[in-house]
From TrEMBL:
GO cellular component terms given for this protein: cytoplasm
Residues that coordinate or bind substrate: 87, 107, 141-143
Source species of the chain: Mesobacillus selenatarsenatis (strain DSM 18680 / JCM 14380 / FERM P-15431 / SF-1)
The protein's required cofactors: Mn(2+)
The protein, known as: Pseudouridine-5'-phosphate glycosidase
EC category name: lyase
Keyword Lyase (UniProt): yes
Cited HAMAP family: PsiMP_glycosidase (MF_01876)
Length: 306
């Protein structure tokens, strides 16, 4: 029953057969997180980095009524260019699949699809979280609930400070989701290596992270983990500069009464505009850095299984 919804690329099929480590990648970042053509170019480069680091990439999207696990070049190109690809989170999956519409999967939806495909590690840029002013808007990303219940490790560069990072950490704590800092004590804030908050646990090697993930699941503790990997020093943006830009973007979102699933793409677009594209360069660099770490964690997890 379930299998009829899933369609694997040949590369992923072969990897699974051979017991090779596979790393999931999301597609909202392609369709709604970055402009064309940088989005498609980055998606391809990230896939290549995963291969170079000993794993096989599986970019996930909803196309033609199927959950695609691993995409062709043409499919990546389509996701990068098309205007009618929906942003697809948990609530959108049944509608998009039953009506055969196309969707780019968020962190939450990618986790769901990865778990269905038995993929344990997922690399992205940043997770969604509790938005600032959530106490009145109730805008809390479905990514956080998904981390509470779906067994996939998410490698990211922390979360952007368009969010309330403190409340995001509180929410994850309530839900029992560990936030691991890869070689850092401070919670990375996407464009910057540090934030005013600490991660829960610091681990310094992909092997140690794989051990902890394995331990969580052996104990039957359902849900994911967040692996927060700071942006490389040379690509980080200056803290006060980006803080300023984010304030401006947030003000404009309120003024224009942006709501629902448009909030995050609107803010990402605004930040890019206000930084003259510097935010995009940083975004690309940090995703690539996450791909290196995620592939190594996946390889280490696969080794433990032999
Ligand atoms: N943060 C980013 N870039 C992104 C996203 C978040 O820096 O592209 C995307 C991810 O797909 C994430 C989604 O899952 O936005 C969260 O959207 P929302 O806040 O509507 O849940
Ligand atoms: Mn939201």
């Amino acid at each position: 029953m379930l299998e009829k919804w899933l369609e694997y690329s040949q590369e992923v099929t072969e990897a699974k057969k051979a017991g090779k480590p596979v790393v999931a990648l999301e597609s909202t970042i392609i369709s709604h997180g970055m402009p064309y053509p940088q989005n498609v170019h980055t998606a391809r480069e990230v896939e290549q980095i995963i291969r170079e680091n000993g794993a096989v990439p599986a970019t996930i999207a909803i196309l033609d009524g199927k959950i695609k696990i691993g995409l062709s070049d043409e499919e990546l190109e389509y996701l990068g260019q098309s205007r009618d690809v929906e942003k697809a989170s948990r609530r959108d999956l049944p509608y998009l699949l039953s009506t055969k519409k196309n969707g780019a999967t968020t962190v939450a939806a990618t986790m769901i699809c990865a778990e269905l495909a038995k993929i344990e590690v997922f690399v992205t840029g940043g997770i969604g979280g509790v938005h600032r002013e959530a106490e009145t808007t109730m805008d809390i990303s479905a990514d956080l609930q998904e981390l509470a219940k779906t067994n996939v490790a998410v490698v990211c560069a922390g979360a952007k400070s368009i969010l309330d990072l403190g409340l995001t950490l509180e929410y994850l704590e309530t839900q029992g989701v560990p936030v691991i800092g890869f070689g850092t004590d401070s919670l990375p804030a996407f464009y910057t290596r540090t934030s005013p908050y600490n991660v829960n646990f610091r681990l310094d090697t992909p092997e140690a992270i794989a051990e902890m993930i394995e331990t969580k699941w052996e104990l039957g503790l359902v849900g994911g983990v967040v692996v927060a990997n700071p942006i490389p020093e040379e690509d980080a943006l200056e803290e006060s500069f980006i803080a300023n830009v984010i304030e401006k973007a947030l003000d404009e979102a309120i003024e224009k009464q942006i709501g629902g699933k448009q909030v995050t793409p609107f803010l990402l677009g605004k930040v890019k505009e206000l930084t003259d594209g510097k935010s995009l360069v940083a975004n690309i660099a940090l995703v690539k850095n996450n791909a290196r770490v995620g592939a190594k964690i996946a390889a280490s997890l696969a080794k433990q299984r032999i």
